[in-house]
Amino acid sequence: MTEKPEQPDEFSMSETPEAADALADRMSDTLAGSPEASAAEPPPADAPPVETAFEEEKVKDEIDIQIDLLKDPDWTIRREAVVTLGEMGDERCVAPLVNALRDGDWQVREAAVEAMGQVGSPAVEHLVKMLRDWDIRKAAIRALGKIRDERVLDPLMQQLRHDEFKDDATEALVELGAPAVERLVGVLKDKDEMVRQQAIIALGQIKDPAALDPLIGMLKDPDWFSRLTAAAALEKIGDERGRLAIKPLLKDPDLVVRMRVERILAAWKKNQATANA
């Protein structure tokens, strides 16, 4: 039986070196043109990492979920959604939280105030606009007091001139603390005695030593209630210079001021005796 001659093999070792090189080139070209061998185009230099982009998309989805929950008839679910949005702190959460300040349940509204404070600076512009709305102005004032941003100072100082909102503004400025001291000291000479008095009250509660000398100066204010309020503020600060400064008010022309100062000095003496015991 005659054997068939073997077919030439492209990979046969009997090929000439030139043929082997040509075969290798053909194979390389074939692989380079295949989808598997093609290198993927590099992402743009400013593109976020895949993991980061995924996390951002996940957060967006979660925000949408919480916003939808704000429409739930159960107030506890709405409140939890408000709390979650505040914790996220994303700018997209601001508008829904502003709307939550109008919620029919007071606990949801309270949670919204806290949540706006957590969001912080991105919420300032929206809250300042809300000061025009009488119905939610109190809530907006309180929320502004929770945000450490210099843009909240002017709007809050303006609210000291409104009898209905002055106490809320005072509390908000007290919550801000030291950043508000300079502005409060600046209005101690305001022509509006109500503004002066609210500034005195706020400075006494903040208890910043920088307010000591300006408050001592207010002990000579023409308005008896301002003098009285300044003495009480100095009592809160508790500096010995304040105690010495209010002693002359024991001879104040107003009886109410004299009586209040007597009580302040008696309490001061008692506290010192207790502290030294």
Q: Can you walk through the features of this model?
A:
The chain has 277 residues and is mostly helical. Among the domains are: 52-143, Leucine-rich Repeat Variant (Alpha Horseshoe), CATH 1.25.10; 177-272, Leucine-rich Repeat Variant, CATH 1.25.10.10. 64% of the residues lie in helices and 0% in strands. The protein is built from 15 helices and no strands. Helix 5 runs parallel beside helix 7 (137-144) and helix 10 (178-186) packs antiparallel against helix 11 (193-206). It starts with 16 loop residues before the first helix and ends with a helix.
Briefly say what this structure is.
This protein has 277 residues and is an all-alpha fold. Among the domains are: 52-143, Leucine-rich Repeat Variant, CATH 1.25.10; 177-272, Leucine-rich Repeat Variant (Alpha Horseshoe), CATH 1.25.10.10. The protein is 64% helix and 0% strand.
Task: Outline the fold blueprint.
Layout: H1 17-33, H2 50-69, H3 75-88, H4 94-100, H5 106-119, H6 124-130, H7 137-144, H8 153-159, H9 166-176, H10 178-186, H11 193-206, H12 212-217, H13 224-237, H14 240-246, H15 255-276
Helix pairs in contact: 2-3, 3-5, 4-5, 5-7, 6-7, 7-9, 8-9, 9-11, 10-11, 11-13, 13-15
